[in-house]
């Protein structure tokens, strides 16, 4: 609960106390009037009794007193009615005050819960980890929300609630001129604040976010302090809209970058798929050509065998036919493997590679490729983006390569070098960790090499 709410609650309680005191006084006055009425009734009764005993000339005097009593009674009834109305008004104010107190207590409890909920985030952010305020799935959602926030800012300015007039001023003894002057000051205040916010938000990055947020809050406080004597101040609702704009602008930029990386990754997969299809096509043509050649030779040898009578020639031809059959079977098997690789999008190679010249010792990349020749993909990784080529420690063929890659990533999740971007597949582990992890996969084909050659790196060290 804010300081303003506390003062408001205290003021209401003071007013309620005063009203209760007034109620008590009025109640006492009613009792006194009722007592006087009772006494008057007794006196009237006594006078009526005297009237029966005294001579006729007292009737006029008694009548006069009775009329005066009736007037006094009417006056008392009117006062009593007024007091009852006042009591009802006091009770109504009391009910409203109690309702306001309940609302403030509810708000107080809500604020306490917010403080508890934010405590963990404050602790996290003290370590420089940004927790998103919004969780939209696409950059378009962020852009739409950002547009809504900016429209809300314009609406507050249009409805004249972006700044407040804290106390009215006069100019040349004119309240109207004074208000016009304060409105102009408020517009200038908004223009200055908007300019500072725009300059800050346009330069926000992951590393300076906290500083930009503090800069906006500080600008808000300083501008309000400078304009305190002018009777104008920026509203807290407008500040909150600016801070929402800051969060949205930052998260919008981050989401766009994330989508770019996802698109780049998707395009890489598409390039991998195209390269695979090209490899399959080339290899299939070669196998089909070889099969056609082997089958043609086989048919020719069979025909020759039927025409040959010499036993030695027959034996040689039979051996040649057996060798050709083995080649035909091998080529047919390769063709079947190609058909399987083409039909199954999960079959491929998981590779575990290192680059000590670029990243140092005990840093491994764990990735996957569907290429028929996995080394083509690994050579691409070491082409221009790093100063040295990658060394291969393990090539693992699997019919569900993406699942295998995911299992290895999960196993070494705590060892990720980039802990906020799972698309970066580098891990700080040892070769022994790799060997231990691969023991689980005895049912798959693994080519393993423990020591990296790093030829170019080692030769470069010699040159130095």
TrEMBL record:
Q: Which InterPro entries match?
A: Phage_T5_Orf172_DNA-bd, SNIPE
Coiled-coil zones: 9-43, 73-121, 209-341
> Which keywords accompany this UniProt record?
Coiled coil
Pfam families the record matches: MUG113, SNIPE
Which residues belong to any copy of the Bacteriophage T5 Orf172 DNA-binding domain? 358-441
Name of the featured protein: Bacteriophage T5 Orf172 DNA-binding domain-containing protein
Native source species: Pediococcus stilesii
């Amino acid at each position: 609960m804010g300081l303003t709410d506390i003062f408001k609650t205290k003021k209401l309680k003071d007013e309620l106390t005063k009203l209760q005191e007034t109620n008590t006084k009025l109640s006492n006055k009613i009792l006194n009037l009722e007592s006087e009425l009772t006494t008057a009734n007794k006196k009237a009764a006594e006078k009526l009794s005297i009237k029966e005993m005294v001579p006729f000339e007292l009737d006029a005097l008694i009548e006069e007193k009775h009329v005066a009593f009736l007037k006094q009674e009417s006056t008392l009834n009117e006062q009593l009615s007024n007091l009852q109305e006042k009591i009802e008004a006091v009770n109504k104010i009391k009910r409203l005050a109690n309702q306001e107190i309940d609302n403030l207590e509810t708000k107080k409890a809500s604020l306490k819960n917010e403080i508890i909920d934010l405590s963990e985030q404050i602790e996290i952010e003290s370590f420089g980890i940004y927790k998103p305020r919004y969780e939209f799935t696409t950059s378009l959602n962020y852009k739409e929300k950002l547009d809504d926030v900016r429209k809300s800012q314009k609406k507050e300015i249009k409805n004249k609630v972006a700044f407040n007039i804290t106390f009215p001023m006069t100019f040349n003894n004119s309240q109207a001129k004074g208000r016009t002057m304060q409105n102009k000051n408020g517009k200038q205040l908004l223009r200055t604040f908007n300019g500072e916010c725009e300059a800050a938000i346009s330069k926000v990055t992951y590393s300076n976010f906290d500083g930009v947020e503090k800069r906006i809050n500080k600008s808000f406080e300083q501008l309000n302090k400078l304009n305190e004597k002018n009777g104008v101040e920026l509203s807290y609702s407008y500040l909150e809209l600016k801070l929402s704009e800051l969060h949205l602008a930052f998260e919008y930029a981050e989401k766009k970058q994330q989508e770019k990386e996802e698109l780049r990754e998707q395009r890489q997969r598409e390039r991998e798929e195209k390269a695979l299809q090209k490899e399959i096509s080339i290899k299939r043509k070669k196998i089909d050509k070889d099969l056609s050649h082997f089958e043609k030779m086989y048919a020719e040898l069979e025909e020759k065998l039927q025409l040959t009578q010499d036993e030695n020639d027959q034996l040689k031809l039979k051996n040649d036919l057996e060798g050709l059959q083995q080649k035909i079977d091998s080529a047919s098997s390769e063709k079947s493997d190609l058909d399987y690789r083409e039909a199954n999008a999960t079959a491929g190679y998981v590779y575990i590679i290192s680059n000590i010249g670029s990243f140092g010792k005990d840093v491994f990349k764990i990735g996957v490729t569907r290429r028929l020749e996995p080394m083509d993909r690994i050579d691409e990784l070491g082409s221009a983006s790093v100063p040295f080529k990658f060394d291969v420690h393990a090539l693992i063929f699997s019919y569900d390569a993406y699942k295998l890659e995911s299992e290895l990533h999960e196993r070494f999740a705590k060892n990720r070098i980039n802990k906020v971007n799972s698309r970066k597949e580098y891990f700080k582990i040892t070769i022994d960790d790799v060997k231990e992890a691969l023991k689980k996969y005895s049912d798959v084909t693994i080519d393993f090499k423990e020591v990296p050659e790093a030829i170019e790196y080692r030769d470069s060290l010699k040159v130095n």
